[in-house]
Amino acid sequence: MAQKKRRFQQLQAAAATAAPKDNRVYTNPLQKQVSEKLDEFGKSFEGKGRTMLYGLAALVVLAILITIFVNWNRRSGGAGQTALGKAIETSKAQISETGTPAGSTTKTFKTEKERAEAAIAEFQAAADTYGGQIADKAKYFIATNKLFVDKAAATQELEGLAARTDEVGKVAKFSLAQVRLSDNKPDEALVLFQELLKLDDAIVAKDTINFEIAKIYELQGKKTEAADIYFNIAKAAAEAKDADGKAITPTQTATEAKEKLTDLDPERAKQIPEPTPESPFSVGAPVSLN
């Protein structure tokens, strides 16, 4: 359970490419502030989008929401972008039973349900005001936040969104699969993950999807199939090199895959080389004389 709660997931878009040059034009100081804050928050999750378990046994993929938004954010209209940004800030505001401290401007809520309801209202307002792509994104955020309020209704909305073939549909399908798992329906979750795995661009990293499939195989007693997947994830990460031929630090997904493999097949896990720390005296590395 502890390992599940600290589960990190790699996001394909963040891991595969560097962030593009920022050519955005801000129409007001608030838009710039919100955009920069979201970009900073999204970058903190690059390569390891965090999956978090919330109340009512509902899984909301907040890191994926934020990171996907940051990518969408660069293509969205100014005012609509700002409205979505403010709603996202509300959806991840601090929970505190004592409320906002005196003199503080930080937004806090006493319960997750209260926070979700506030965020839903803001996302709905953005959808009603701006329509189009802004509304599409807002609908997804509404559905995931609604998992705190009315899980049955939220699941139904995610089912509808997951039927789409665009970015919203792909991320909604991943979220729906997580909800199926939280409802103890691993067979249904497996079907959804396998559908995503077949896509050329599933938005969520292939390693992340494969890791989830391997966990389901474990639940089904298919230890060999699960070990095969964990081995492939961990081995590929251990052998990965950057453009300069240097070893790439394994993602949290790869690290946990090796841990899982060690539990299932310790001897096979030994076949995966340990990462070699980069020497500070390697060619091209600056040497400080201070």
What does the largest sheet look like?
A: 2 strands, antiparallel
> What best-fitting shape do the alpha-carbon axes yield?
globular
Number of separate strands = 4
Give the % helix: 55-70%
Number of helices: 14
Terminal CA distance reads: 46 Å
Task: Considering the chains and any ligands shown, give keywords for the structure.
single chain; 290 residues; mainly alpha; 2 domains; two-stranded parallel sheet; 4 strands; globular
Task: Please give a quick description of this structure.
With 290 residues, this protein is mainly alpha-helical. Helices cover 59% and strands 3% of the residues. It is globular and about 55 Å long.
